Amino acid sequence: xxxxxxxxxxxxxxxxxxxxxxxxxxxxxxxxxxxxxxxxxxxxxxxxxxxxxxxxxxxxxxxxxxxxxxxxxxxxxxxxxxxxxxxxxxxxxxxxxxxxxxxxxxxxxxxxxxxxxxxxxxxxxxxxxxxxxxxxxxxxxxxxxxxxxxxxxxxxxxxxxxxxxxxxxxxxxxxxxxxxxxxxxxxxxxxxxxxxxxxxxxxxxxxxxxxxxxxxxxxxxxxxxxxxxxxxxxxxxxxxxxxxxxxxxxxxxxxxxxxxxxxxxxxxxxxxxxxxxxxxxxxxxxxxxxxxxxxxxxxxxxxxxxxxxxxxxxxxxxxxxxxxxxxxxxxxxxxxxxxxxxxxxxxxxxxxxxxxxxxxxxxxxxxxxxxxxxxxxxxxxxxxxxxxxxxxxxxxxxxxxxxxxxxxxxxxxxxxxxxxxxxxxxxxxxxxxxxxxxxxxxxxxxxxxxxxxxxxxxxxxxxxxxxxxx
Length: 470
Prior knowledge:
Largest sheet: 8 strands, mixed
Helix content: 25-40%
Low-confidence stretches: none
CATH superfamily of the largest domain: Zn peptidases
CATH class of the largest domain: Alpha Beta
């Protein structure tokens, strides 16, 4: 996709809000006669103008949000594709709650989303006609080429993450996930991949316990993007490429979407791709402990006591609480080897978080209030839904074990918080923020501008965290 700022190049897509002044007689006729009501996302191809114009509604000014702007862009893009338009010029109005630049960027992001289809396994591919978008220079305010390049870098990371999450587990497993991460080398990222023997030498016993039941070898993936100064920021992503639940076996319906249980790793890899493409002058490390949670005669079992890289013993209360075990060793590895100034760890960790937050919002906790607020602020600025979870000693106490240093399940009540606090128990001094993305990493149905399936949730937030922590 090519995006420019300039004069008209291709068919015009004109975005129109309700209750705004109508200066064109032809548009007034369409509105007065209910041919075009300017509802959000409504489209109408106006052939009465000198050149055809695809009109797209934005709704009432007071109801317009970044989300609704993206939806308008999405619908306009879908209609442009149906009309087989290859080049379009975007004309945006002045809105009271947003700058023209903000409006243009949100609409263009919506247009980009209209071009995403995961049809890798379909014989008949979706035809995408739209190849070039021009933002009209007369109505996009101070939008500049740097803004466009940054948007495209983030979009590239989102698409990469979505494709990883959408790939079925028979094709995406630890080795192939590592191969995908290796592609970041082309962008100047130093990618190291450690196999089972090397992981054993490192001492990541909790991680290896989870991996024992699978015939797929675990892969520890470490990505270093060192283009700045000082201590790095660390992003740690849960990398369960498939989760059967182990001996605490999931029901069939619960397994169907478990290819998405590596959504945290996809967000981390996608974010580092975006950061590298944007050539940010920052130091960032990504750590992914990739494996499958399966069951066979050698798999770990409820009641086992296992070790960890930190040296804490862990009582296995539930083998389906496996992600936190892999993360315990991954965050320890990151802290021991990089001493990061901030660690953000992401995981499709708990159904309890989805119950608390719904399908489209992440839950956030950590060990430093200022860092938590910073992550939440970055998420808000990138329009990615996140909300603070309760945390502290009462949730930590739920993980106490009578026979080991800690157990891997705190029970049903407060499950999202106790699961996060389990991971936090393996952090010694680093400022750490946990983001449970169990809901928004994978859509059960299209939501706003996002498609069904993998979303790339938190790629943009991680990008902004890195950008603001130079």
